[in-house]
Amino acid sequence: MRTYRIGICCRDPEYASGLMLALNRISGGEIEAMVFSRPEVLVSCLPVHEPELLLMDDWRLDEDEAGMDREAEELYGIPVRRLTEQPSERGIYKYRSVKEICQELLAGLRMTGMAGSSDSGCIAVFSPLGRCGKTALARALAVSSGDRGGLYIGMEEYADCTVHSELLYQIRQRTPEIYEAVVREQTIEDGAAVLRVSGMFSELRDVQEEDLKWLHEQLLQPGRYQRLIYDIGGAALSDLSILRVFERIYMPVLPDDISVRKVGRFRELLREWRLGGLLARITPVEVPQDAVRTGDTCRILQCLEGG
After folding, report:
1. Contact 207, 235 (CB under 8 A)
2. 163, 204 in Cβ contact below 8 A?
3. Gap between the Cα atoms of 96 and 92, Å rounded
4. CA separation (Å) from 164 to 147, 159, 169, 206, 283?
5. Which residues, at least 6 apart from 127, have a Cβ–Cβ distance to it below 8 Å?
6. Which DSSP state fits 232?
7. Strand-strand pairing, 92-93 and 80-84
8. Could you give the angle at which helices 209-219 and 178-185 cross, rounded to 10 degrees?
9. Shortest CA distance to 287 belongs to which of 163, 131, 152?
């Protein structure tokens, strides 16, 4: 059974505390609710494993409802449901039975989890850390989906300098035969279809969000690829907003204090750059380093269980 973390930020601390306790009890372990005292301290209080949903009341009264929700999601990087004083299609009516609130929350969370599962068409493996098992995880995902049309796409900043490809030029030119070109240039390595789009650092940094959107439209068609797994180096992207084209982002992390601080700072930067919405798509995972050394694909993929 999966447990969903929900943050509650409400001006009425008694209501927030009561809702937290009731949700934790009624959900039978499917919800782990926590209370944050005020919106302005929410970011600094976010735990390492952030809530998957925030329940908030009117934290800004000079904005329209849709505007507040969008700004909150951008700031916190977590989907927001508003707690409302009156029945509303957009929000959660505060004065319903907790059982009804619990059922509605779980239904929405389960649907979101299914949509963002590891079977999503476009997956990125990306991390602000080095030597964390990023490439090993991306390769393992490609191997596991090889018989279902998976493609590993290497976009590392220090890629193989012997790669001489015109794919990026063809993508920018929107060449109609791009799928055929991809098939010609891919190789089969350890059971996975592998594509290296360029060996030049400068070319990778020229890739734009619209380029990848178009490429996905061409490759994710019936009879073509079903899954695209990108191995992305942190310095290979000139603009982190490109990550918005991916339905799910696996972020390998390490448990040491320095790595934890680096990941925390990366999350803060995403919020500062108004890209906090990406955090809802990021799943931190610890890739077992001994499995990386031995190339144990099954053990590497175990780190995704429950993600």
Report:
1. no
2. no
3. 9
4. 27, 11, 12, 16, 33
5. 134, 234, 251, 252, 253
6. E
7. parallel
8. 90
9. 131
Could you give the CA distance from residue 142 to residue 295 in angstroms, rounded to a whole number?
14
Three-state secondary structure call for residue 109? helix
Residue 241 is given by DSSP the state: G
Give 80's Cβ-side CA count (13 Å radius). 26
User: What is the pLDDT tens value at each position of the chain, 307 positions in all?
Assistant: 678 889 898 889 999 999 999 999 999 999 999 998 876 666 666 655 568 888 988 655 444 445 555 666 666 677 888 899 888 877 899 999 999 999 999 998 887 654 444 456 899 999 999 999 999 999 999 998 765 579 999 998 766 666 778 899 999 999 999 999 999 999 999 889 999 888 777 888 899 999 999 999 999 998 899 999 999 998 888 899 999 999 899 999 999 999 999 999 998 888 888 787 788 788 999 999 999 999 999 999 999 875 5
How far is it, in rounded angstroms, from Cα 6 to Cα 20? Answer: 9
Is residue 160 a contact partner of residue 199, using CB atoms and an 8 Å limit?
Answer: yes
Asked if residues 56 and 83 have their Cβ atoms less than 8 Å apart, the reply is yes
Q: Residue 178 is encoded by which pair of tokens?
A: 């791009």
CA–CA gap between residue 125 and residue 248 (Å, rounded): 9
